[in-house]
Amino acid sequence: MRDAFKKDEQFDCVILDPPSFVRTKSAKGGALRGYKDINLLGLKLLKDRGYLLTASCSQNISMSDFMKVLNDASGDAQCRLQIIDIRSQSSDHPILLSMPETHYLKFVVGRKISS
């Protein structure tokens, strides 16, 4: 991705599916920075009206955390991110309300709107 950015390449769609950035709650701050950095770069690689498909499979990152990361990244990229769809893991990996860590997969489809 960094090479594409250095070459000023732009894409209609960027898909981000990184491995889990955080294994423990104590590593959450660094993970949030990592998610922000990768999404910021993804947004910079997108053409206007391009689609960002981005995921977090970190159980210690909530959907609220992930949405804040995306909002912060879009602000730094000087664009708006229009949320098209929000998904989670499939029904063969059910989420137990009493165990928030079972809601580990967050997936967002967004469209870049240049400012």
TrEMBL record:
InterPro entries: SAM-dependent_MTases_sf. PANTHER family: RIBOSOMAL RNA LARGE SUBUNIT METHYLTRANSFERASE (PTHR42873), S-ADENOSYLMETHIONINE-DEPENDENT METHYLTRANSFERASE DOMAIN-CONTAINING PROTEIN (PTHR42873:SF1). This is S-adenosylmethionine-dependent methyltransferase domain-containing protein.
